[in-house]
Design brief:
elongated, 12 helices, 3 strands, about 280 residues, three-stranded mixed beta sheet, mainly alpha
């Protein structure tokens, strides 16, 4: 996100209409009508609701498009989403609108549209995030790092590396690893700050995301950033959930978290200590 492309004007009515046209194309008529009905009022609410558990994609996307149209990127949102546990247990928490958009991207990315294909949803989400980033930076001025961190926190471990769609988060990853760099900040938001926090399951999901995105730029840099963030959490919170889970599964060869445990032992702990020392 370090290029001149973000220094543009907020999206005009024609771009908002383009998003609605895309949404209409990938939604059933009933879902689209439900989504647009009252969408403006929902986006104007003091605390809008984005419900990724009970509401249709069209309903949530019209709410988010309305927030984009009103430039409410940091508006407080009541976010319903599924947790990172095996059951996907629903939970509700407060977030900002940008993080809610990130959560919607992860939740809706693989859902089929009315024709049974996920392609249209993916293009709509890509365009929505692109316009959101442009508008958030253009209206807030110089806050692109915070916008990206909020988006990564909402996306969770599938942000790694460079988001669920690599072309969206154009972070300058070409620089050498730095423990306070932007890549580390995004990984920390995605795997440690996303509610309900860092666990072995989240580490495993982040590693799986790295597998999927193995063709992205600088995969080893993103992996080392993940190792540093996990190692730091383990060291700095000896009474935390990750520390307890790691030691509980470390001596179990058949553990379902074997890959995450091995990553922590072989990469995360050594990386954190090498950088700290």
């Amino acid at each position: 996100m370090r290029n001149g492309a973000v220094r543009q004007q907020p999206p005009g009515d024609n771009r908002i209409e383009m998003l609605y046209a895309q949404l209409r194309a990938c939604s059933s008529p009933e879902a689209y009508r439900e989504g647009v009905r009252g969408a403006a009022a929902r986006a104007r609410a003091s605390v809008p609701i984005v419900d990724l558990v009970h509401r249709t994609p069209a309903y949530n996307l019209t709410t988010l498009i309305g927030l984009l149209e009103r430039e409410r990127f940091q508006a407080p949102v009541l976010l319903f989403e599924r947790g990172l546990d095996a059951q996907g247990t629903p939970f509700v928490h407060h977030e900002c609108a940008t993080a809610a958009l990130g959560a919607a991207c992860t939740a809706l990315f693989s859902l089929p549209d009315c024709s049974g294909s996920p392609t249209a949803h993916r293009q709509l989400l890509a365009d929505l995030v692109g316009l959101w980033l442009i508008a958030a930076v253009a209206t807030a001025g110089g806050t692109e790092d915070q916008v990206l961190r909020d988006l990564a926190r909402g996306m969770g471990p599938w942000m790694v590396p460079q988001g669920w769609a690599g072309r969206l988060l154009q972070v300058d990853s070409g620089e050498a690893f730095h423990p306070h760099g932007m890549v580390v900040a995004l990984v920390r938001e995605a795997v440690a700050e996303r509610a309900p926090g860092l666990k072995l399951r989240v580490v495993r999901q982040a590693l799986e995301a790295l597998d999927v995105c193995s063709g992205a730029q600088y995969p080893q840099l993103w992996r080392r950033a993940l190792a540093f963030v996990v190692g730091a959490d383990l060291h700095q919170d000896p009474l935390g959930r990750l520390h307890a889970e790691y030691h509980a599964h470390r001596e179990s060869p058949a553990s379902r978290h074997r890959r995450a445990v091995d990553f922590i032992y072989r990469e995360a702990i050594p990386t954190y200590h090498s950088v700290r020392d």
